[in-house]
Specification:
Layout lengths: L6 H48 L9 E10 L5 E4 L4 E7 L2 E8 L2 E5 L4 E10 L18 E6 L7 E11 L3 E7 L2 E2 L5 E4 L10
Antiparallel strand pairs: 1-6, 1-8, 2-5, 3-4, 3-7, 4-6, 5-6, 7-11, 8-9, 8-10
């Protein structure tokens, strides 16, 4: 007589198959839970990636402008626009310029209170080395360097503001602290608090 005709063997086989079936049901349940968790994580990562793509700070730098205004201590009676003597604003790290915005025109005007307001609107050149890098690349800047070609060396700077716009989407407002120019440059150091929006 074969096992197919043995009641005891068939009963044992039936019991074994029942336990295997129960095990497979549990296994299937675990697999479904695992699949759910993996799918959920995949959706989360996809949402994060999509948000990063839409983040203005993650976009490549294409254009840049700055409106710079500094107030100098001076009694000079001046009210002039210098058509061929502008200036520049540069983000720097060590001896390297990360991004430079420049122009050929600037303006200076006495405000009647012993101060001359210097103003310029400068743009980034399309060949600037920052082009194509993400906007948050500017987080590496250690200082801002400012120059007006007609501003006398050694001038006392009372205050100022640089409003930088990148890609017409990211706006940075960087105040210029009071300082004595040692040459023809103005510096703003400790930029990190003003670059928080790039993180």
């Amino acid at each position: 007589m074969t096992w197919w005709g043995d009641i005891a063997v068939l009963r044992s086989a039936s019991t074994w198959l029942q336990w295997v079936s129960i095990g497979l049901v549990f296994c299937s349940g675990f697999l479904q839970v695992g699949k759910y968790l993996i799918d959920k994580r995949e959706r989360q990562l996809a949402a994060i990636a999509q948000a990063e793509q839409l983040n203005p700070a993650a976009q490549p730098i294409r254009t840049g402008t700055v409106t710079i205004e500094v107030v100098a201590q001076s009694t000079d009676q001046i009210n002039a626009t210098f058509m061929d003597r502008g200036g520049y604003v540069a983000f720097g790290n060590g001896n390297d310029a990360l991004l430079v915005l420049s122009g050929t025109e600037s303006r200076a005007a006495q405000d009647g209170q012993g101060e001359v307001v210097w103003r310029g609107v400068f743009e980034m050149d399309v060949s600037d080395p920052s082009v194509g890098k993400p906007v948050r690349y500017l987080l590496g800047a250690e200082y801002l360097q400012i120059n007006f070609a007609k501003l006398p060396q050694g001038t006392r700077i009372k205050r100022g503001i640089a409003v930088v716009t990148i890609n017409s989407a990211v706006r940075l407002e960087i105040p210029v602290p009071e300082q004595q120019m040692s040459d023809d440059r103005i510096f703003v150091r400790g930029l990190q608090p003003f670059l928080e929006s790039l993180k």
